[in-house]
Structure formats: structure tokens, C-alpha cells
């Protein structure tokens, strides 16, 4: 016999490791084990034979994902960079602090093993965790022979079959999860930082009216998270809410007819349905009243079948648990996972709704024969003479990994189970028994009658055989008897009435409706849908009432409204996410690479992000509808993050961002403030400034993003355009001149009375260096701004003063000097013009890209 090899087996959870070890060690509840570096992840040891190879088996576990993905430390702090950079910033996978002991255990054991067998859950997420384990173990023992155990239930049959049919792990499946993780990180982080920094300090976000009674007012740490799947999910809730709000009740009319005979009463429905035109409805009704005799024009007898449900997948499990028990999807999956790990049901995360042809369905039914409630039905199913058995219907969904959910072990109820454990186990069992049963059979009769040319109909049903409905108590299909009618028979209706009604809006989305919307749109996976729904409640974007119906909070509605007003449905509707999920499936089967899908998707989402940032006023306008403005941001200017213009050339560690100062003027400052005080002052005449995606081709080191400026027309010299695409890197002569001319000082609101025009007087040298006055006034302003170009020249002060004084006398102007560029010249000029030196409020400054003299 060959020498035993040492095999390290790694499961996804401690309970799964214990179940696998118990089964493979002989089925007893006792299997020798020892402690590891992590107190929750014991190591089980026993001997076993795999493919005639003697093995020393070590079975241990991780606890879910062993690694996390995040940005490099340089980009992890919110103020470290422009959120737009997060679409290209380096990311890394690493073992977090709380998992280091698990890593140490795996590496210590892997050093002395020849094989690594991965018992992670057999879905995409499990495959990704498997490769995390591989990376950690192979880092210390690259010679490990790596295998994958594929199983769908923690039963002896499944575990034995898996260990004797080991396969190689599938990198494509792991890559698909990497795509989802990295794209969610980049998109989520960029939009979360953007909308949190834009809105949290700007508004008093009071959510006391929510079910959570959360008070976020004054909370600077309140994060307005954005998720690429979370927001389309919220979009479904908001869109239904808007549909309800937009509904205008409209009155309609319908004709109802009934006929009572010995066998009972038949209530006929008008085949027109209803009419919104009252006069037309009255006219038709009067015709029927004048000729009330009804003639039977159609008698249709036919057999009707009510089919049993398709085999149970995760989406249906969540929907039905919500319908029948009002259980949330998040709680449903938690209970289902517990039942799976205890060996009572198969793996609960599956898209598949068809059983494979080689599945031993009879054996599954046999397990349930002794149950005190449905055991007798299981016995009837297995009795060929009863004729109750029918192979399950074939669905249209498959994940090619797991079968539908089915019971794997008999239980009449466990002592530790909660009521929801009992309910969910019962649902899985009854659903499976229904799947392998004959459909219910009914005899249906449809009658049509004619009254004065108007058609009415009624249907009756008699149940012939309930079949699967005998066990599936969650559905009903009742009898509805009507009198017997024959073709050509005539009778006078017992009642014939014209009734009115009012149109009603659709109801709020229930949790089952929301899951259905996500499933149809192709967003979320069977493993993540419940988590996205839970986040809507946790983030206070939506509430859920006692009937499991969802409504948006003011915050949730405002955010969706803001993006909708921008014209970007892609940010709150499912199209982009659906595309990404579809391409992720292409990665999982090897038809597309991880890199190409990521590059394409992130390119699109970055474009949406940059456009959204340019239109951020729409978000604020939407928030204005629901929340009051806050005055916090005025005192926190240096910490308020704007759009990145370039990397700081002084500290080389942080970004330079565009900011609006408390006085209303703009600047470009370093995010490293107060440690780094690098700043670029911009002209005080700027009214609007927005960082664009266009990069300057002249300035280095780059990139240096161009800024779109808008200047106040009356505060810049004639000949300059109010709109200017500029660069702060030093190459822009126009921006430099305007900074010199206009200065960077405060536009002190107290100096400019509200509602009065601001004139502009520019003093600049002529060719003879004598100086001349260029006046640009709006009407006859009460206040005139005098600017002297800060250049070295020696104009004739007296002649210049006379010219200004002449204008003063003609237009009766009150001169108020706000910005002056040449202090020596103005010291001579001002007293001559005004004659009252003490009355002048002059701010003397020369601005040369951040230097104030």
C-alpha cells in the first residue's frame, strides 16, 4: 500500500467542516479535533481513502470571505483624493486583521500537506473564497495539489460522491466575483463620497418620520451610500411611489347582471368591462332595461388544470416566504442557511428550477413517509396504484451548479428550531412533494348571454381531483357553482344595475414584488438580492410596513429625484447593472475576460459620475424640496472637498481641489490642509467655476484638469469673455491677467447694497504712459468700482483725476473703491477724486497666483 498523503480540507464555515468530518470519519458524532489559532475554526483529524490513496485528513474552515478588497492606503481616506480618481486608483486584496488567525492556521497546516481540498459553497462566491484560500496556502507551499469538492447538500451521499470525484477549481467563476466586487467598490465609493460630501453638511437630514426613527440632523458621519445594485432597487420603490402619487382617480360605470335559479345565483360580468363616459353608459343601460330578456349564446364546458409549482429556487423561496409567512428575504436566507448547515435542506442559493434526470426523487419522498402531517401523502405518492406521481415540470433557469432546493433529511421538528425554522422546512417539503404530484383537475363552464346586444359572461368551476393541492396548503382552487344553462335558453335577469366605481392606484411594492422586479430586470443574484433590499432599510432610503410593502423615505426619494432630474436614468434604473450582471455571466463561462468587462463598465460609470458632478445642482434642488439647508459648511471650508484639479506640487501627497470660500470667492487648495497650506487664489470676479474632464496639454506634472470659469461681466475689463476655459498650472495668460486686474479679495456684501448695480471703472496705461479712464457702467449705478492696473507706469495724476471728477459731476456717482491694484498711484489719485480721504474704503492688493502683497 502506498504511503499516506496529508490532505488539508477547508470548508466555508465551521459547521460545514464539522459535518464533512463527521460523515467522512464514519458517521459518528465524535471526530477527534484540536484547537487552531482561531478559536472558532477547529481542526478535525482522521484517516480516509480517496481514489485508493490512503490519506491523513485534516478538516478545518474559514468564516466566509478570507480576504477583502479595498483601495491602497493612499486613497482610502475620504479626503485623500478626488472621487473620480477611484475609477483607476490601485486596489488590493488582503486578509483583514480579524482573519489573520485563520490565515495563520491555514498556512501552518498547509506547510506539511500535499493536497488541498476545497469544500467551499459551490457557487460563484464560494469559488472566489476558494481561490483566496489557495492564495494563502500556496504562498507557503506552492507544491500543493489543489482540488475542489462539489456538493449540493450535507448528506452522506453527496459528501461521499464529492470526495471521490474531486475536480479542479474554476478560475472563471472566481473572476466573475472579482468583477462584481471591484466594480461595486469603485462605483460605490466614488458616488458615496460625492453625494455624502455634497449633501450631508449642506442639509439638516431629519428622518424622524421613518420607521427607524433615525435622527441624522447634525450628524457629520451620516453616510449617504450609493450602490450600483442598491440604487436600481431603490428606483423600483420610488417609481411605484411616484406612480401612486401621480394617479388621479377617475370615475367609471359598469353594468352588473345577476340571475337566481334553483341551483344558485350567477353573477354576470359586462364584457365591455367599464366605461368612463357616463352618458354612453346610461344610454346602453337604458337599452338593456327596455329589452331585459337574456339569451344564452354560448355554453362552453372544458377541463381545466392547475399545475403544481416549478421546483424551488432561491427567488421563489424568498417570494413565497414573504407571501405566506411575511418573512423578510434577509431573514428567510438566514433561516434557510441554518437548515442547510444542519443537513435538513439542500443548498439554498440556487437559480435552478429543474431537477436533473438522474436525481433519485423517490428516495427524497421516502424520507418523508413517517411525518405525522404529510407522511400519508408521501405514501400515496409512492403507491403506483394511486396514480398521484408526476415528474416535476422543467423550468427555464439553471446555474449549472446546484439542483433546486429540496429536503435532505426527515424531521418532525427540532427542539432548537424557531417557528420560522418550522415554517420554512415545511414550505420546502410541501413544495417538493407538490412538484412531483399530478396537477389539480377541474371542470369549468363558461356561459355568455346577450341582453339588447350587450354581452355578459360568467364562469363556474367544479373540482374533480385536488391532487397536489392536498399537500400544498399555501394555494387554493375552490368550487364556484352556477345554475345549469343551455344554448338558446332565455331568462329575465334577477337584477340589472348600473354601478359606478373609481380607478385606484397600484399598491406599494411588497417584498415579493420587489424581488420579482429585480429578477425580471436581471439585477442582483440569488445570493445578494436579500442583502440589497436590507440595505435600503439600513441606509434609511426606504421603509417597510407590516404588510411588507415598501415606501421611499424623503432621503431616498430626493436622491433618486436628483439623478432623474439630471437625465441619468442609468444611475437609478436597472439597465447598467443588468448589463454588468449579464457580462459577469460571460466571464463565469470564459467568453469574456475580467479585465475587458471591468474596463468597459467602469469607463461608462466614470462618464456618468463626471456628468453627475457637473450637474450636482440638480441633487441640491431635489434635496431642497425635502430638507432645510444647514449653515455648517461655511465654517468648515478647508475640510469641504471639491473636484480635483491636480496633484499638490508642494507636499506631493494630496490633491489640489477647487473650493468655494465662505466669502463666495473660489480657490484651489490642498486637501492636506492644515499640514500643507499650498493654495492658488483665483480672481474675485468669478461667479461660477467647474472642473472639467479636459486635461491641459502644456502643464506638467499632470494631469492638470481645466476649469470652466464664468466671470461677472461688470467686474472684468472690456474685451474679456465672461466664459473662459482656463488652467491654474501657470500657462494661462488670460487667467493671470484677470487675477492681476481683479484681485482675489472678498466681495464684501456689506459694501455693495443689495439690489443696486455695480459699475466698473478701469484705469490702465496708454501708449504715452499718461493713463486714461475706461468706463463701463450699468445705467447710473450708485456705487462705482475703481480698478487700477498693477503695472509700473507714471501717468499724469492731475489729468486723470480731472477726467474721473468730470464723470462724477455728470453722473452724480458716489465713488467707493473696492479693489485697487497700484497702491502708490492710488494714494495720489483717491484724495484728488474724492476730496475726502477718510471716507474711502480701499482694499489694496496685488494678486499674483496666491501671493498677496
| Percent of residues in beta strands | 15-25%
Mean pLDDT: 85
Shape: flat
**Can you name the CATH architecture of the largest domain?**
3-Layer(aba) Sandwich
Q: What strand order characterises the main sheet?
A: 17-14-15-16-13-12-18
CATH fold node name of the largest domain: Rossmann fold
Distance between the termini: 92 Å
CATH C-level label of the largest domain: Alpha Beta
The tally of beta strands, per DSSP, is 35
C-alpha-based Rg, rounded: 38 Å
The percentage helix is 25-40%
| SSE-based structural type | alpha+beta
Low-confidence stretches: 209-220, 633-641, 746-797, 810-825, 835-853
Verbal overview:
With 853 residues, the protein is of the alpha+beta class. The protein folds into 6 domains: 5-169, Rossmann fold (3-Layer(aba) Sandwich), CATH 3.40.50.140; 225-246 and 508-622, Topoisomerase I, domain 2 (Orthogonal Bundle); 251-307 and 444-502, Topoisomerase I, domain 3; 314-438, Topoisomerase I, domain 4 (Orthogonal Bundle), CATH 1.10.290.10; 633-742; 749-852, no CATH class. It has a 7-stranded antiparallel beta sheet with strand order 17-14-15-16-13-12-18, with helices on one face. Strand 10 (206-207) and strand 11 (214-215) form a beta hairpin. The longest helix has 29 residues, at 171-199. The protein starts with a strand and ends with a strand. The model is unreliable at 209-220, 633-641, 746-797, 810-825 and 835-853 (pLDDT under 50). Its EC number is 5.6.2.1. It catalyses: ATP-independent breakage of single-stranded DNA, followed by passage and rejoining. Residues 170-609 form the Topo IA-type catalytic domain. Belongs to the type IA topoisomerase family. Residues 6-152 form the Toprim domain.
